[in-house]
Structures are given as structure tokens and as C-alpha cells.
Specification:
Blueprint (H helix, E strand, L loop, with lengths): L11 E4 L6 E4 L2 H10 L7 E3 L4 H5 L7 H7 L2 H4 L4 E3 L5 E3 L9 E2 H10 L6 E5 H21 L9 E3 L6 H11 L5 E4 L2 H10 L6 E4 L5 H12 L3 E6 L4 H12 L4 E5 L24 H13 L6 E5 L9 H20 L6 E3 L23 H16 L8 E3 L4 H4 L3 E10 L15 H15 L18 H27 L5 H24 L8 H4 L1 H4 L2 E5 L3 H4 L1 H5 L6 E3 L9 E6 L8 E2 L2 E3 L2 E3 L2 E3 L9 E4 L6 H4 L10 E7 L5 E7 L4 H7 L4 H17 L5 H16 L7
Parallel strand pairs: 7-25, 8-9, 9-10, 10-11, 11-12, 12-13, 13-14, 14-15, 17-19
Antiparallel strand pairs: 1-2, 1-3, 4-5, 5-6, 7-16, 16-17, 16-24, 18-24, 19-20, 19-23, 21-22, 25-26
Helix pairs in contact: 6-7, 6-13, 9-10, 12-13, 15-16, 15-17, 16-17, 24-25
Bound molecules: pyridoxal-5'-phosphate.
The site of pyridoxal-5'-phosphate has 18 residues, from helix 14.
């Protein structure tokens, strides 16, 4: 007995209290979530002009495309993720250029190779495709606006420092001389050593000491193109000192602190109080110092970064105009310049809503490139300045799509659907509850014989609703009675269990009835909340602190959905709880077309079958920000590439941290821990509390655990 049950259910359109769009909702469940979110007030459901006809005939099957629509796959997933006829998530790692993989089959085959869940699957073709799209967008914009310059991007290493990722980016970016951006000495080491293309840029950001600067200067002699970006007013003195002692200078860039407003989570990256960048007075003083030290000829680049995930393109335009003017001014002051670096911030549409909300952007990649190119051109033209080579440090936009985290559900809390049959001589309270349930199930939303005229409502909805409300009040009352009877010793534990089950069954029956009500029905608040009250907790074999830390740290939204059974109507609402013993270890915020919903439509897990969930678009920042909370370590990771004749290659396997490794990270010595336990078990053997065979088994478990990943075994 699932939530949907009834054969006749209209399809709804729901006019959101705050929004303007009328969105046809395919899942009845979502309707209630929207109502809950709309606040304490009441909400009117409107007819869907396009949707009603489809349902008019009665039962409407659930197809894979309904699943895709429900989880927004058809919006945020384009062009890499979609759904196949079998209801599995399909991956097209090369976008429209062909080739696809069944994600479920892939996971199955990887499991066969002993790569257990949770598993991070990196699709290197997607990474390459993102690079191509970025360059393609700039090439088109440059052609369209007749821009007399080039685009030459860099990847900010902080976004994903994994060796195979950076190596792959350097390799596949070679044809565009795609470079790297480093923000620390360790990242500089990565960039220096991996970036062997003499024409690619190596942008050196972050705080810099003397050694960092000297390293960059010397790297220029290795034939690299490091640009040391001045982020602080006092750095210019260190550059001057290092240059004079080495008798050579680096290419120099300046990061400007823009006054342009910004919005969103990273809005504080701009403005007077921003952490990085030179204010205009500092910038002018720096130019003078460079001139005095005879280093002005090495000033080549102007940089700004107004924060990650720019949601609103208007913010970027303002920043570009301001930076364009500063660039022109620097040229006028005698610096050769040549490069304008617009930083990161190119956003990702996590929920596919194309709005200026936190999980989305109101622009496309092409809009972004067009604005950068057009605005910079407009700034340079009146001054007769040669348009600079455009640099961007897009991290999120390059690295988000390529990795998919798949985890399994260990179980779901919630209400059993099985009702115990009536027993001989059952307590009156239980019989009352059974009668209430039967009454709810018997209510029909139209043509109610005794209710039609009560308040002159010709459709008869109102009485049906009233009767539902009444029945729910009864159920709650009887449940309360049952609880009291239990407290006083008149009901046993099994009877109490039966009472609770009957109450939940009533709740489910009402939820089903509500779905069958005609469009336009105003549903009382108390009943609106029932579907959410039925929600379950799905226990996930994962640590959000390790694998999706931004969901916890900054409330970031990622698309999360089952990767199979999409051709099956989800019958439950739920959220995820992770393995950690931390109440924050949960995923309870889900994308909802520009909004956030607290519960996700999920399936009843089938006994003996896995239920696999995918977290998508998490390729940027999550891995390195993840921590060892509760000593859950990194998950297994694989690099997958499409093979020429269909199928795939596994390019790299990166095994997750073992228990021994996470223990060592905390300075524990696994051998020493084992030895102590061996001694303890010897003592227990001596004192007769532990058999030798059990001691052996205990030691075997401990040794095996040390060698395994930190997650639960299937
Ligand atoms: C973090 C950062 C980036 C990357 O930003 P995205 O939003 O991921 O593109 C680029 N430049 C600088 C200076 C940064 O700090």
C-alpha cells in the first residue's frame, strides 16, 4: 500500500505563492511539499491546462520521462545526464557527440571489480567536454563581436587538486594552451611541475612570501609563464627585493578590489573590505613603485575575482566595466599589460531553473562569454587600446559535472505498510481505529450522497474534505486513547503497536485521498502537513562531511536522486541520514526549480535489492573540503573514459582510505593498536573468558578492518 495507490488522480499545476510560472507537477507528492513551503497560509491549486487531459482517462502510468522531469534531470542534466527506457540514469560523457553509458550497469560492473560503494565516478570525457565548451563559447563570442584578441583560460587548482584531474586538464587543454592557477605554495608546486606548456599561463595568486616569489621568478627561466599577481599592498616590496637579488623579474599582475556590488554566498569577495586585492589608491601607489624599481615593463595582467557562483549576470557586467576602465588606465600609465583576468565565478545551474537564485544562474556559458568579450571591447575601443587576451579562472564551471557520487541506502525508517489482521476480541480502541481507517477509505471526493448541499458547494469537495478532517481528528483521538490505555496498563505492547500502525495507515489513506481531490481545492493546513509527516529517513552509506561537505557547511544544493527505478512512481518522501554520529550528517535540502524542498520523492526500498542514489555536479571543491569526521575517509574513486567501439575504459582506480590510513592520520599506529588488543585477548584467554578460536576470530576481524575502507560493506 503506497502513497499513490488510487487509480484516479489528476495532474496538478500549482501556482506558487511567490513565483510567476505555472509549473505542471507530475508528482502528486511534490504538490504537498509546495503547499507546506508556501507557509502557514492556504494555497489554491490551479488546473493545469496542459496536464489534465492526460489523466482524464484514469490511471496514468509512470514512465521514465516522468522520473526525469521529477528530479529535474531534463534541466540540470543536459547534455550529460538523462534517463534510459529502463529507468536508469544514462551518462553521455561526450554530450551530444554520442556514446552513452548506463550508470547502473557501470556501478554493477565496478562493484564486480571489488570497488564498493560509496563510489566516486569521474568521467574524464566530461571534463574534456567542459573545456571544449568553455573555449567554444569564447571563440564564438570573439567572432561575433569582432574582438581583436584571444581567450586563454586557466584552471584554479584549488577547485580539484587530484593528480589525475589536473593531469587530464593539462593534457586535454594543450591545444588551447590552457593553464593553471595556484593559490598556495603546494598548489604552485603542482602547477609548476605538471604545466609543461611554455605558452600556457601559470597564474600565481594567494599570499606570497619571498620563497614563493623567487620560485616563480626562477620558473620563468624554466620556460614557464608564471604571473605573480599582487594581492596585497605590501607584496610589491617583496617582488622588488626578490627581483633585484635574482637579477630577473616575474611577469606581474595586479588584483584589483572592485567596488561593484556582488550577491550570493561569496558576495563579500568584493568591496572595500574584501580579503584580497588592491584598492585604487594602493593600485596607483604600486604602479609608481614598480616604475621606480624599473619593473613596470613586467606588469602584464589585471585580475579581479568577484566570488564563486555568480548567480546574476548583471553583477558580472558591472565588474567587467569597472575592471575594463582600470585596465585602460593602467595602459595609459605606461604598463604594457596584455592580459585581463576576469577570475572565477562562472556559475553552475544546479537546479536547472535558470534563475538568479543560489543554486542557479540567470545566464548560460555563452551569455557569460559574450558579456566578457563585448564589455571589454567596449571599454578598450574609445581609448584606442589593443584588446587584451582574456583570461578566466573558471573552476566550478569546468569541474562540477564530471564526477558523480553513488551511494547505497542501508535502510529506511518509516512506517510498515502491513496491518495486523483484526484479532478475536480486539480492544474497542483498536476497533475504533479500524473503523476510522475504513471510513477514510470509503470517502469519495465527488458525488458524496449526504454532503452535497451542506454549504451550497455544488462539486461536493467541501464535505469530502470536512469528512477527511473529521476522520483524522478521530484517528488522533483514538491514538491518544490507546496511549493512555497503555500507560495505565490496559493495553499491551503489541496492541499499542497495532494502534500506531492503524494511525499511520489512516494518515496514508488521507494523503491518498487528498491527491484525488479536484484541482482548486483549498486544503486545511493540518492535512497539508500529513504527507511530510509520513516521510522517512533513508540511511545512506556515506559521510556528508567527507563527500558533500558544502551541503553541510554552506547549505549548498546538489541534484540528488535514485539512479534507477526512475520508471517507477516514487511513493515516499524522505531525506538522508549519513553514517556519522552527528545530527548534522544529513542531506535534507533538495533542488526544486529555484526553491528548496526539505524532502525528496523516493521509492520504497525493495527487500534484497540495492537502492542506489547519485549525487551529481559535485566535482568542484567537495573532495578537498571533505574531512575525516568520525574517521570516515575518502571513498573509492574511478576514472572512466568512453571506449572507441562502445563500452568504457577504467583509466585509474583510486582506492579509498583504509581504516589503517585514517587512524594514522590521527597519529595512531595500527600495529600498536593491534598489539595491545592481542595482549588483552591473551589475558582474556588466560582468565578463561575468551576461547582461543574466538580470540583468533576477533584478531582476524581487526586486521581485515584495518585494510578495508571506512564504509559499510554490502
Ligand atoms: C576560487 C577562485 C577561483 C575559482 O572560482 P570558481 O567560482 O570555481 O570559478 C578563481 N580565482 C580565484 C582567485 C579564486 O579564489
Amino acid at each position: 500500500m503506497g502513497l499513490q495507490g488510487s487509480g484516479h488522480r489528476p495532474r496538478w499545476a500549482c501556482r506558487l505563492a511567490s513565483g510567476s510560472a505555472t509549473v505542471a507537477l507530475r508528482a502528486g507528492l511534490t504538490r504537498f511539499q509546495r503547499q507546506c513551503r508556501a507557509g502557514p497560509g492556504r494555497m489554491v491549486l490551479a488546473d493545469s491546462p496542459s496536464g489534465l487531459a492526460a489523466d482524464a482517462g484514469g490511471a496514468r502510468d509512470w514512465s521514465a520521462s516522468d522520473g526525469a522531469a521529477l528530479y529535474g534531470l531534463d534541466r540540470w542534466g543536459e547534455p550529460y545526464f538523462g534517463v534510459g527506457a529502463r529507468g536508469h540514469v544514462m551518462v553521455q560523457p561526450r554530450g551530444e557527440r554520442g556514446g552513452s553509458l548506463d550508470l547502473v550497469e557501470l556501478v554493477r560492473e565496478l562493484q564486480g571489480r571489488d570497488l564498493s560503494l560509496p563510489l566516486l565516478i569521474r568521467f574524464d570525457d566530461i571534463l574534456e567536454d567542459r573545456l571544449e565548451r568553455l573555449h567554444g563559447a569564447f571563440e564564438r563570442a570573439i567572432a561575433q563581436y569582432g574582438y581583436d584578441g584571444r581567450y586563454q583560460g586557466v584552471f584554479p587548482v584549488k577547485c580539484n587538486q587530484q593528480r589525475h584531474v589536473v593531469e587530464h586538464l593539462v593534457d586535454s587543454g594543450r591545444r588551447w594552451h590552457f593553464g593553471l592557477e595556484a593559490g598556495s605554495k603546494a598548489e604552485l608546486l603542482i602547477a609548476l611541475s605538471l604545466l609543461d606548456d611554455p605558452q600556457a599561463l601559470l597564474i600565481c595568486n594567494g599570499y606570497k612570501d619571498r620563497r614563493y616569489i623567487e620560485t616563480a621568478i626562477l620558473a620563468r627561466r624554466l620556460g614557464r609563464q608564471p604571473v605573480v599577481v599582487l594581492e596585497q599592498a605590501d607584496e610589491v616590496e617583496r617582488i622588488i627585493a626578490a627581483s633585484s637579488s635574482l637579477g630577473a623579474a616575474p611577469f606581474i599582475g595586479i588584483r584589483a578590489k572592485l567596488s561593484a556590488r556582488s550577491t550570493g554566498r561569496w558576495g563579500s569577495s568584493v568591496g572595500e573590505r574584501a580579503k584580497f586585492g588592491l584598492s585604487i589608491p594602493d593600485l596607483l601607489a604600486t604602479v609608481e613603485r614598480l616604475r621606480q624599481a624599473d619593473l613596470l615593463d613586467d606588469l602584464r595582467l589585471l585580475h579581479f575575482h568577484i566570488g564563486s557562483q555568480i548567480n546574476d549576470i548583471a553583477v558580472l557586467k558591472d565588474a567587467l566595466q569597472e575592471a575594463g576602465q582600470i585596465y585602460a588606465e593602467l595602459t595609459r600609465l605606461g604598463a604594457p599589460m596584455g592580459f585581463l583576468d576576469v577570475g572565477g565565478g562562472l556559475g553552475i545551474d544546479y537546479d536547472g531553473s535558470r534563475t538568479a537564485t543560489a543554486a542557479s544562474t540567470n545566464y548560460s556559458l555563452q551569455n557569460y562569454a559574450n558579456d566578457v568579450v563585448a564589455t571589454v571591447r567596449e571599454c578598450c575601443e574609445p581609448h584606442g587600446i589593443r584588446p587584451p587576451t582574456l583570461v578566466s579562472e573558471s573552476g566550478r564551471a569546468i569541474a562540477s559535472h564530471f564526477s558523480v557520487l553513488v551511494f547505497d541506502v542501508l535502510g529506511a525508517s518509516g512506517r510498515s505498510n502491513a496491518l495486523p489482521p483484526p484479532a478475536e476480541g480486539e480492544a474497542l480502541i483498536l476497533r475504533n481505529l479500524r473503523d476510522t481507517l475504513a471510513a477514510i477509505e470509503a470517502i469519495t471526493s465527488t458525488g458524496d450522497p449526504d454532503g452535497g448541499g451542506l454549504d451550497g458547494d455544488a462539486t461536493g469537495e467541501r464535505p469530502a474534505l470536512e469528512r477527511l478532517q473529521e476522520a483524522w481528528n478521530d484517528a488522533l483521538k483514538f491514538k491518544e486513547d490507546a496511549l493512555n490505555a497503555f500507560r495505565l496498563g490496559y493495553l499491551g505492547l503489541p496492541e499499542r503497536a497495532t494502534a500506531e500502525r492503524l494511525t499511520w495507515a489512516s494518515c496514508q489513506a488521507i494523503a491518498r485521498q487528498l491527491e484525488a481531490l479536484p484541482a482548486g481545492t483549498v486544503i486545511p493546513q493540518e492535512l497539508q502537513a500529513l504527507p511530510a509527516a509520513l516521510a522517512g529517513t533513508y540511511y545512506a552509506n556515506l559521510s556528508v562531511f567527507r563527500s558533500a561537505p558544502d551541503t553541510w557547511a554552506i547549505d549548498q544544493l546538489f541534484p540528488v536522486l535514485p539512479i534507477h527505478r526512475l520508471d517507477e512512481r516514487p511513493t515516499r518522501l524522505g531525506s538522508f541520514a549519513d553514517l556519522t554520529c552527528d545530527s548534522d550528517g544529513k542531506i535534507a535540502r533538495f533542488i526544486d526549480r529555484g526553491q528548496v524542498k526539505p524532502l525528496l520523492e523516493l521509492h520504497e526500498p525493495n527487500a534484497g535489492e540495492p537502492y542506489w542514489i547519485g549525487l551529481f555536479l559535485g566535482g568542484a571543491y567537495q573532495e578537498v573540503m571533505g574531512n575525516l569526521h568520525n574517521l570516515f575517509g575518502s571513498t573509492n574513486a574511478v576514472h572512466i573514459r568512453l571506449a572507441a567501439g562502445g563500452g568504457y575504459h577504467i583509466d585509474h582506480v583510486v582506492r579509498g582510505d583504509t581504516n589503517a590510513e585514517v587512524l594514522q592520520a590521527m597519529e595512531h599506529d595500527p600495529d600498536l593498536l593491534l598489539e595491545r588488543l592481542r595482549l588483552a585477548s591473551e589475558q582474556a584467554i588466560e582468565s578463561g573468558t575468551l576461547a582461543i578460536s574466538d580470540a583468533r576470530r576477533l584478531m582476524a576481524h581487526l586486521r581485515a578492518s584495518l585494510e578495508q575502507t571506512t564504509y559499510l560493506e554490502a
